[in-house]
Each structure stands twice: as C-alpha cells, then as structure tokens.
Write a structure and sequence with these properties.
Length: about 80
C-alpha cells in the first residue's frame, strides 16, 4: 500500500531529521528543496523525483515549496 502526503513549506523552514517507515520518494511540485542525509545532500526543483535514503534525513525549503511524499507501507 502507498501512503501519500502533500507537504507545503515556507522558504527557510525545514522538517527535522526523521527515519522513513518504509521505501519513500519525494516529488517536488513547486519551489526548491534540499534533502539532507548525513554528509549527502540532494537538491530538488519542480518535476524532480528524489528517492529518500533508508537513513535519518531532513528536508529544507530553499524557496516556498510544495512536495508530495509517497511511502510504501506494509499491510497485514
């Protein structure tokens, strides 16, 4: 099953470091964001699809941004 969450962030704000509950992607719909995991950084602009690493990571909004988070979750 897939769970999708639409997230809007103001420029300069961020989502604190967290661990994904499953395989996940981040699609940038508007703005510019940076995904940070340890020493690695990925920039995303509209249309980009970023595979989220299976490690603790955070998301920073460089500009006002809207992203679509898709997470694969196990069903019982």
């Amino acid at each position: 099953m897939l769970r999708q969450t639409l997230i809007a962030l103001r420029a300069g704000s961020n989502l604190d470091e967290y661990q994904s509950p499953g395989e996940a992607t981040l699609q940038v719909l508007h703005g510019l964001v940076t995904l940070v995991a340890g020493e690695s950084r990925w920039s995303g602009s509209p249309g980009d699809l970023i595979a989220i690493p299976d490690s603790r990571h955070s998301l920073e909004a460089v500009e006002d941004s809207v992203v679509l988070l898709t997470v694969g979750v196990a069903t019982s």
